[in-house]
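Archive maintenance. Older records in this collection stored only the sequence; we are now back-filling the structure field for every entry so that each record is complete. The fields below show one back-filled record exactly as it appears after the update. Entries are processed alphabetically, and Zinc-ribbon domain-containing protein is next in the queue.

ARCHIVE ENTRY
Title: Zinc-ribbon domain-containing protein
Organism field: Sulfurisphaera tokodaii
Length field: 37
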Amino acid sequence: MIKCPRCGYDNPDNALYCAICGYPLTTQQPTPQSPYH
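Back-filled structure field:
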């Protein structure tokens, strides 16, 4: 279960968005790109 940080609803593990409020539940953060020099 993935708990929505916005509304607290327990979503299924494969949910991409909260079923109640639509908040994105992606656990994978984008990798920050190194700054250009």
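Update note: The chain has no helices and two strands. The mean pLDDT is 85.
Entry marked complete.
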